[in-house]
Design goal:
The complex is a heterodimer of chains A (303) and B (912). Chain A contains 17 helices and no strands. Chain A is mostly helical and 303 residues long. In chain A, α11 (181-189) runs parallel beside α14. Chain A is elongated. Chain B has 912 residues and is α+β, with helices and mostly antiparallel strands. Chain B has 23 helices and 36 strands. In chain B, strands 31, 32, 33, 34, 35 and 36 form a six-stranded antiparallel beta sheet that branches. In chain B, α8 (460-470) packs antiparallel against α9 (476-487). Chain B is flat. Classes of the chains: A mainly alpha (303), B alpha+beta (912). The interface between A and B is medium-sized, with 23 and 25 residues.
Amino acid sequence: MRRTALVLALVVSAASGLVHAQRRRPARATGAAADRPPEILSLREAREALSSSDPERVILAIDSLTVIGTPEVVPPIVQLLRSGPPDRITDYAVEKLGIIGQPAAIEELSNLLHHRRPAVRRAAIAALAQIRDERVRPLLESGLHDSDAEVRGQAARALGEIGARASVPLLFRAFERGVPEAAEAIGRLGDASTAVSSDPNHDREDPRTTTHPHTLAMWLGRMPLSVLLRGFERFLNRSDISPAVKEQIIVRLEQQASAQVREFLQRWVSSLPPGYRGRDRARAELAIQQIRVPTGAAGGGGR
Amino acid sequence: MKARWVLMGAVVAACVGCMPTIRRLTAFSSRFPDNNREHIRAVYSRLPAESDLSVASNAVGRPVVAGVRQDASRAVVLIDLASGRSLWSADVHATSAPEILGDVVVVGSGHQVIGLDIRNGQRRWSVDTRSLGYLGAARHGDTIVLSLSLGNSGGGVRVGRVVAIDARSGGERWAHEVVGILGHPAASAGYAFIPWDRQSIAVLDLTTGVERARLRSIDDVISWVFAGPQGVFYGSRGAYRWTPRSASGTRSESAYLPNPLEGIPGDPPLYRDGFAPTTGTRTARDKIRFAFLPRIADRDAMAVQHDTIYLAYYRFLIAIDVRSGEVRWARAFGPEESLQQGAGASAAEAMRRAQASFSEHDIESVTVTPTAVVTISSNGVVRALDPATGAIVGTQTLGVSLGAIAADLTGYRPPTQGAAPAPEGSPREQIVALIRDPDNRLVPIRSYLVRLLARRPEAEVTRDLLELYRQRSIPGTLRQEVAAALRSRRNGAQFLIQAIDGEEDHYNFLENRQAPPLDVIAPTLAAMGAREAVPVLLQHLFDHETPLAALPAVISAIAELGDATVIPQLQAFVQRYRADSAFAGDNSAPLQTAAAAIFRLGDASAREWLAALSRDTVVHAPLRAAITRLFEEERSGGERQNQERQLAQAREELQGRINALRAAIEAYPLRLSNEGFEDEWNNHIDELRECAQGVLTRRPDLNEIRITVTVRSEPPMDMFETTPPRPRLPERPTFEQQMEAIERQMQWVEQQINRLQSHRSFVRSVAYAPQDPEMQRCMDEKIRPLQFPGFGRSNSQQTFLQRISTVRTQARATGTPGFGTPEGTSLLVPWFLVSSPSLDRTTGQLVSLSSGPSAAGSTSNAGGGTSSSTPSGSAPVAAPTAPAAPPTPPTVPSPPASPPQSGQGTRPWWEE
């Protein structure tokens, strides 16, 4: 009885949690069939199973290849994708290519960035973001040009995730063109000068007409505050941004004088370590006190 | 006596009183001849030679403009163009356009036509229109003729009135009331030219009102007539010059100049429609019009100055080569000023303001002078343009907003200020600029210009159209017109390829770039046969930003332009999306198109691939069904072709046999020839010879036996039918049913041929001479069963006379035993005499007959067969007039001078 339970536990872990746990660590169980749980197929078996007419068996094969995780597993999955499987299998296989994380999948994933179904394109972007390769960044940037808003958002997030600092100018353009996810990516990637200018007048310029470098603060009042706050939150949480810059950010936000800003600052202050007494914290606490919110205006989003 | 004179005077006075009534009958009579050459020529001969155009003809002596103020007063204003000053303003509430006629400005106002003194605007006279519409006036000398009409716009009542008045006093000189509608008159050389019922022009003597000539168009409409220094002109869509050739009443024989442009929105005639009353306000009719200046040409041809006509269309002015229809130059007035007025506001606001102010720049008047094209816009701006280039040579402002403008520009010298260069670029580029014009009122003419542009041969037109199509601000209807024009192009493929080749020619969100219009470009490239476009089109096939709706066009173009090398990529496309929801249901059209392309271009392996796809249950059902259909259609198409081939072959064979049947019927003899008879007869000659032996024994003097055979043919009527019976088939017969029907027809034809070939004639009767019963019985047994070839188209019979000569037996008497005469017999008697009771055997009226070389017992057909009605003359030997049986004794011929030599042949005895 105990033995059965152990086997079941192994299967479950192999099929789900194990997959994620091992996505950066290729499995070394390619030849040792006796060492693996019975439901995980060998590379050969998985290859054969990929052409099965039973979708469940195909899924099992993909899982098995994901567990194996070596570069050899990529071509069979690529072949599967090119054979035109149903949506469910396509989506699943693309996702697993990301988990496998092998650069060998980049070519097919870049093809899938032109798939006619946005869900596949989003999945391809997510998968690419998990592959450490210098070819990935331009591919993710191309996602910002996509006609689908969710694809663009996914691309912006992915650029933030992979730390593509070189993409900040492009992210600003995407943000200007209405990709809200770009704000968060800018908050993760941009340097201090992209958050707020030391010259308040600069931040008050119209970003649509100015020739000066853009800052996120320039969009205050021009873009939904909730969108901008996601970017500023990233800046405020970064350790490489000086307290002085953070203080400037807080000042710009305070000028909005909205309940949303106050709630945001309150949440941020509460997230700080209790013993932290930096000037940025003090400025934030002061701003929380000074922002007077009219009755009934709490929670309202300002522009 | 005195009373008598008084009475006579009264009668004369009464007659004079009747004169007006008589005059009314002197024009517009139905009995007046149309197109009388002498009449037309007489009018033409009186028309003046081209007059001086440099001196103003009006009483002011300077170029002037009369117009109606577009406010509640509807005042008529006269402006001196040289000074730009208003000379006077008359509050007459104008309801027509004014006309400058010498020293008078004539204008309609309600039910009156008013004459204003051109020098001061004072009312000089007025004429009651009698509730008729005022069409216009013309003047020659001191007579002004007015056209008044009712029913020009339709309705049951169609009446008109022509009134001639004194130009100074307005007193009526004569008038005609007409049943029919009248148009704006013209006057020249003492004649009034009155267009009538849109078909005729009545030419009246201005002094008396008597009609002098009448022109009636046989194949055209007459909408207008005007007289100028160059002559009298009339027409509708085209222009005629009044010449003696006008008497033909036809376009082809008259001096005619057609308008090379057709289908212009608003359908303007070449000159202002004289049957449409003017209103004194700004109307579309005034804003959409042609202008031209006639010129004298050789042989009285109709020609225009600079060979150019000018189309004014609201703010557009387009110069058109009257011969080729090509645009010489084109320009618009106003958008730049209007857009500048909106500067400082947002783009949308600027455009809104511009749209509102565009109408201020509409061309209200356009006049062609020998040196300039002069336009007057709604805002009172007068522009003089170079007729050759469209450059503005001068501009002046009238300072008043006018409508219903009349201009007397004789002697006009354009101002020197306000010049502007000719419109930029080539005529093609100028047309494109007008198409791009933001004035939304002008979409119809912009669409027309698109069609005009598309007809141009330059390859760059394709690029222009593509750029127009991609212009986002272009109205939808215009975009559709551009798309249609683009599809009609057959050159400039390189521009289309450029438009879809390269990274910057795909959709890009950040760059705000749209996908290229592949739904238009791809079919056009295919129509152009631009094979070099295939790689680029393949790129767009795999670009997810290519609109789904455009994919079938892209794939079709790839299939049309490409070859088998594109199949792998098409297969990759189909393979990837064969089960993807992006192409499920109605969205599967691109996959189906690609499958069809693979089916068409691919080899056997490609078809196998498709067949496998059609069996795969994962694949979208519509795609599978489409593939299955492709195979079925080909299979059924192949079978159908095969069956059609078989049917065609069978029909061909049937027709061949029908032809053979017809030939056989054609060859079927109407008569039985002697040869035909003898072919059968000679087969039995030996049997007959045997029958003759007995009678020769009994009658050794018998020289000849004559047998008359009557042969009868009774062919059935249906034997000569050549059309097989029509088969009874269902409405949609199967292949088998059709083949069976053809087979039955074939059998019928064969039966007919067999019937023809096997049909025989039979012996109806036989007569013998001599009438020896024994011989007769014997021969009857042999002859009566005989059958001969059939003949004739109906029941008919022919008679053949056969002779069995016995005469040469005598010649052989010394040697070989003869046919009939016993050996040693020396008495030679003609056979018919032998049996003739008139033969005197004792006296021996005998003819010495020599023996012939022919075989004993040979028979000769004397006279051939004779039908029951007509004797035949086709005997092998010259036939005597001997009767058939029973023979009648002829005159005994004289014996020959010397006996014939042996070897002379079997000649009848009487020839020997």
